[in-house]
Amino acid sequence: MRERIPHEIASSILAATTAFVGGTALDLPPWAIFVSWAGLHLMGNLSLANAKRLWAAMPVGSAFALAIVLVDQQLAPHVGSSRWAQDALLAAIILVLNTALMFTGRLRLTSLVPGMFLGFASYFATYFGGFGFSAGNVWAAWLSVVVMNALGPVYAYLAHRLTFARPVAAEVPAERTVPAPVQVA
After folding, report:
1. Is the overall model pTM greater than 0.85, yes or no?
2. What is the average per-residue pLDDT within 150-158?
């Protein structure tokens, strides 16, 4: 197949549209599209099956990150204000919840552990970066990042469809008569 539009152009045009998708009054994180777009490419095959695996894993990773923030918000006031105490608490929360995330990777639905970590990192960047339709709201950050991460595989598919020509059925040549092999006696 020949390229219809160079991949660099098709992908760049699509990338430019993320400014409008994320740069709305909702202040959605446009870069979260790129995280899952790249994640699908890293899986090696731009298939619906791989997109479904990524769509299942990323929100779970984001949910674990959300849980870390929620638990930290509840427990942090009880350990004192020293940096060491706050860091030790956060380390303990991450140890427990990250272990749970890793064990969740043993389930078939969420077996794409790198996908969970892409969602995990995307959530932290969204929440602590002040993105989402209600900046500073843990739930708004989660919903915002899940929606934007879900768009990445769609963008990967669109870039692929714009870039490569569709295969056409090969023309079947008219039947040729093949001379019978000559037999030597």
Report:
1. no
2. 95
pLDDT digits (tens, 9 = 90+) for 81-138: 999 999 999 999 999 999 999 999 999 999 999 999 999 999 999 999 999 989 899 9
Tell me, yes or no, whether 79 lies in a domain: yes
Q: Does residue 97 lie within any of the structural domains?
A: yes
Q: Which residue has the higher pLDDT, 165 or 114?
A: 114
Q: What is the pLDDT of residue 175?
A: 60
- The secondary structure of the chain as a DSSP string is --BSS-HHHHHHHHHHHHHHHHSSTT---THHHHHHHHHHHHTS---HHHHHHHHHHHHHHHHHHHHHHHHHHHHGGGS-S-HHHHHHHHHHHHHHHHHHHHHHTTSSTT--HHHHHHHHHHHHHHHHTT-SSSTT-HHHHHHHHHHHHHHHHHHHHHHHHHHBPPP-PPPPPPPPPPPPPPPP-
Copy the structure tokens of residue 5: 């539009």
Q: How many domains does the chain have?
A: 1
> What domain range is 25 assigned to?
7-163
**136 in a domain, yes or no?**
yes
Residue 157 counted as domain residue: yes
Residues in the chain, total: 185
Average pLDDT, the chain: 89
